[in-house]
C-alpha cells in the first residue's frame, strides 16, 4: 500500500467527501454522542471551500482516505473539519492532513493554526494535544473564533461546556539582525 498522496480536492469529489465525513463521524456513537454522529455535512459550504482551494484530500491506492478543510479566522489558519475514513484510521493520515494545513498557513504568513473541538473525546482534544496544540483561555479567543464557537453551540448535540478552542503557534524565523 502506497503512502497517501495529499492534494487539493476536486469538485467532482464533494459527494464522496460528504459521505466520508458521515462515516468518520460514526465514531461519536461509541461515546454516546449520537446527535454529533448524525450531523449532516453542509455541501454548499464544502463546495465553496473547494472552489477557494481550501480542501485537501489524502488519496491512497486511488481512493480518498481522508480530507481536511481550512479557513482563516482572526488572521490564523483554522481547521474547519478533518475526517479520516474508519477503514484508514490510526495510520497517521489525520496527522498528515493537519500538517498540510499548517504548512499552507505558514506559507501564507499565518501566525498560528487554530481549531475547535471536544475537550475530552480521545480523538479530539487529547489527539490535538499530541500534535502540539494547547487550549486557548477565554480571553485569548479572537472575535471570529468566538463567533464560530457560538454557531457550533447552536447545533444539535453540541454541549458548549465540553467544547474548547485550541492553537498551535508557528515558530518565528530566527532574528538575523
Ligand atoms: C480525528 C481523526 C481525523 C484522526 O484521524 P486518524 O488518521 O485516525 O489519526 P492519526 O492516525 O493521525 O492519529 C491517531 C491518533 O488519533 C487518536 N485516535 C484516533 N482514533 C481514535 C479512536 N477511535 N479512539 C481513541 N483515539 C483515537 C489517537 O490518539 C491515535 O493514536 P494511537 O492510534 O497511537 O492511539 C479521525 O479520528 C476522525 O475522522 N474522527 C471523526 C471526525 C472528527 O472527530 N474530526 C475532528 C473534529 S475536531
Automatic annotation (TrEMBL):
<protein>
    <submittedName>
        <fullName>GNAT family N-acetyltransferase</fullName>
    </submittedName>
</protein>
<dbReference type="Pfam" id="PF00583">
    <property type="entry name" value="Acetyltransf_1"/>
</dbReference>
<dbReference type="InterPro" id="IPR000182">
    <property type="entry name" value="GNAT_dom"/>
</dbReference>
<feature type="domain" description="N-acetyltransferase">
    <location>
        <begin position="4"/>
        <end position="154"/>
    </location>
</feature>
<keyword id="KW-0012">Acyltransferase</keyword>
<dbReference type="GO" id="GO:0016747">
    <property type="term" value="F:acyltransferase activity, transferring groups other than amino-acyl groups"/>
</dbReference>
<keyword id="KW-0808">Transferase</keyword>
<dbReference type="InterPro" id="IPR016181">
    <property type="entry name" value="Acyl_CoA_acyltransferase"/>
</dbReference>
